[in-house]
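Narrative progress, year one. The postdoctoral researcher (J.K.) led the effort to move from monomer predictions toward full complexes, under supervision of the PI. The following entry was the first complex the group processed end to end, covering 598 residues in total.
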Amino acid sequence: MRDSAPPLLSVNNLRVAFGGVERVRGLTLSIRAGQTLGIVGESGCGKSLSWLAVLGLLGDAAKIRGSVLLDGSEMIGANRQTLERMRGRRIAMVFQDPSGALNPMRSIGWQIDEVLRLHRGLRGAAVRVETCRLLDRVGIPDPVRRANAYADELSGGQNQRVAIAMALAGRPELLIADEPTTALDPTIQAQILTLLKDVQRESGMAMVLISHDLSLVSEMCDMVAVMYAGEIVELASARALFAAPAHPYTRALLAGMPMLDGPRRPMVAIRGSVPHGQDMPPGCAFAARCDTFVAACARPQGMHTVAPDHVALCHRARIAT
Amino acid sequence: MAAMNGKARPMLISLALGWLVLMLLLALFGGWFTAAATHLDLPHRLQPPVFFGGDGSYPLGTDELGRGMIARLIASIRISLLIGFAATCLGAAIGTSLGFLAAERRGWIEQAILALVDFQASLPFLIVALALLAIFGNSLGLFIVLMSLHGWERHARVARATALEANAQGYASAIRHLGAGRWRVYGLHILPNIAGPLIVSASLAFPEIVLLESGLSFLGLGVQPPLTSLGAMVGFGRDYLDIAPWILVQPSLVIVLTTLSVNLIGDWLRDRLDHRL
């Protein structure tokens, strides 16, 4: 499974702090071209924040350290022009709330036209032709007429399709989908995910799928990173993660997931809450909520290799499996 | 665009538009009358207009110095409209820019701008205007800048609130993530979204500025002779209210009709610009 080709994006020890409180505490991962990486974790664990930091979108209040290499060039601390040229063209983003992500006063065609002009250098009639092709690609019927519609005239699912078309307009190498289906109903969810998968297969772009939905991630992704309190606690191939979760937090998450098939069993909630800011323990952040707590958990933890392509931030990981 | 066809223009809007166009034409091409506006015809002072029983040699009558009311009115409309439009546009530009600046930079810059907004909103503007006029003296350019400071804080508030909302989790952040620079985000994305509130706010500011100018001129602190404005005419006409009411009534009527027209058109424009309405 290991690939000797250099990764498209490699994040090394990324740290994001607001007012002295670290919200992302040393994120390390890499993505190869064409790969799908899922990032799961509960609200506030820093899964969206990390990617905003990668794109340089957090403003002056955030203190960002670490390194993010895109094709070998450093993105942390890069100047504004460099980052603006890169956003949308090399890394694009799709959001949770599709209706909010579209400008209510501009037609959807206008908005896709704009990205095409920005990143593809298209001019004149060619712009609208490409816009209609993109709308057709994401499954908007009658694109020529629909290009003149406004976001409020389309359904939520169609708006998300338009947002995906906008993100695809710059032909990015990496698409970051931040809970792209959370605001949509289940039928539409499946359609949007199929669309994303198809588009990815055609274009060979890499994708980061941020979600708190474990089953969605297991279907869509090659690799899955589980985040807890600002760090990755387990990183593994989707199959390995669900077959043999090594970190107690991952196990607890899976235990809290209802199964459609198999025996009925009560869902298990994780007791306690996530430590924040100053209350962060020096050792394992999950220690206070962990059922398998031992004294050694109070010491700072390092990544343990459970299997090839499977690491967990738990000193008992090897014992547990 | 879908919003631009289909709806018929209401009669009232047509009338308001017609009046405003007439005022603008008078303001633009009224330069020929400014010489006549200062021409004294003392033997014919306080001639009543035709509808007050005048003989028609001066259709709208003459004032206390025998100057023709038509020429006076046109010269006044010219100045009042210049001040009204220039100050409204300048005020909208200042307010919107500061609002966007606050939303973009946050931190102490935002705090400073918000403090200015509160300061402006809590102080009676007339007092500020009087103080500044007393310190800096009076010229038309300075007067326009001063009038533009009236109402900028409303534009700033609207602009900041809209920009914050759009930046937080909306279309502005979305297009930023796709590589748009800040000029593009504010100019092409957020500005169209505040066009509606901005027009309403400006159409309220315009009559306020015209009235404020009238008030200051009435007090003798606004437009100085030989220049004249609608407010100055009302001010000078007050002394002759009982023997020659037309001196005061006619400019007052122009003020009322113009401000009403701007309000009506502003309201209508906002509806037209928003395709959802």
